[in-house]
Design brief:
Layout (H helix, E strand, L loop, with lengths): L44 E7 L8 H12 L2 E7 L5 H9 L7 E7 L9 H7 L4 E7 L4 H12 L4 E5 L5 H15 L8 E7 L9 H5 L2 H14 L4 E5 L21 H24 L4 E3 L13 H15 L3 H16 L5
Parallel strand pairs: 1-2, 2-3, 3-4, 4-5, 5-6, 6-7, 7-8
Helix pairs in contact: 1-9, 4-5, 7-8, 8-9
């Protein structure tokens, strides 16, 4: 990389290592019954990734999926309605009974060619807004497009639809470095499709732990963590399989869904551990919908449970859980205080 605007990459930060036991299942096959879910629950939740494909600002499908467990804790959502008429959506939200809990309306834009017509809508909207885009490759256009978004002073979600290699990672670092040049107090950049990253569920977990892509993952997230004011979203992954259903408390452990869920948690923790060590708990943000360009299928309530349990099994600390599920999103998307 020729640009000096971003920091030189180095290895992971010297943070406490997570114990090997954190990556093993707490269930023994001889116990016969699933243990009670972790007692560590977030006090309240902000869902920072509610993607509504049908354009309905009341997001009834998400409310149904959230159920009592997630729905009862919700204090805010970051709402995304891709393809909807932005003018119409903002007017509907202004009179919606849900307005008070819309922390931000996430507005999609093309990173290679931002639409100038977004300007007046963003400027006049009474609904708090942020921006979201999909990144595929480094180019002068993507640098200019990201700079355009950062200059609007709003949080920018970036869906990394690119296979992370040394070359693509350096390209993205270069884009962020050049896009932030000359921008006074750049707003947060929030990355998705990284935690967890896409991978092949058919690959046995033992082979995954020694696979070159997984071995490179720790260094990649350590490099991303050095980018200024960058956060990572904790979202349902693109694993060519829907998020497994949460077993009912007291269910036998040998149900098919129970086994699938435990396998997912083991894999999620393999990726969550390095991200926690690199970013710390202060820069990870929970969301229940897959990233905006993903084709993954997921139920909001099921993902909340599997994400919460995975985190709680790694870090038995209320402060960590509250930050990931509420505090970090409030800091990034919430009203700014002087």
């Amino acid at each position: 990389m020729a640009s000096a605007a971003h920091p030189k990459r180095k290895g992971p930060k010297d943070l406490p290592k997570l114990p090997p036991s954190a990556f093993s299942s707490p269930v023994t096959e001889s116990s016969g019954i699933l243990p009670s879910p972790s007692t560590i629950q977030p006090e309240v939740v902000i869902d920072a990734n509610v993607v509504v494909a049908d354009g309905d600002v009341t997001h009834p499908q998400w409310k149904k999926e959230a159920g009592q467990v997630l729905g009862g804790k919700i204090r805010g959502v970051v709402l995304s309605l891709p393809g909807a008429d932005l003018d119409k959506v903002t007017k509907e939200l202004e009179s919606s009974p849900d307005l008070d809990r819309i922390l931000s309306l996430s507005v999609p834009y093309d990173i290679e060619k931002p639409d100038p017509s977004l300007e007046p809508v963003l400027a006049s909207s009474k609904v708090p807004t942020s921006l979201t885009t999909v990144y595929n490759a480094s180019s002068p256009e993507t640098i200019a497009g990201l700079k355009w978004a950062l200059e609007r002073g709003r949080p920018v979600d970036v869906d990394l639809q690119v296979v992370l290699t040394d070359a693509t990672l350096e390209g993205f670092e270069d884009v962020v470095g050049k896009a932030t040049e000359g921008v006074a107090s750049p707003p947060p950049i929030i990355l998705s499709n990284v935690l967890p990253p896409p991978h092949d569920l058919d690959l046995p977990i033992i082979k995954l732990m020694n696979h070159p892509t997984y071995l490179a993952f720790s260094n990649q997230v350590a490099a991303l963590s050095l980018l200024p004011n960058v956060y990572i979203k904790f979202l349902p992954p693109s694993w060519d399989s829907p998020t497994p259903q949460t077993p009912y408390p007291g269910s036998p452990i040998d149900t098919a869904e129970g086994k699938i869920q435990r396998e997912w948690k083991r894999r999620i923790k393999l990726y969550l551990g390095p991200v926690l060590e690199a970013f710390g708990y202060q820069r990870i943000i929970f969301g229940s919908s897959p990233s905006i360009a993903s084709r993954a299928k997921s139920n909001a309530g099921d993902w909340y449970e599997i994400a919460r349990e995975s985190l709680a099994e790694l870090v038995s600390d209320q402060e960590f859980v509250d930050a990931v599920f509420h505090g970090n999103a409030l800091k990034v998307y919430g009203p700014k205080t002087e």
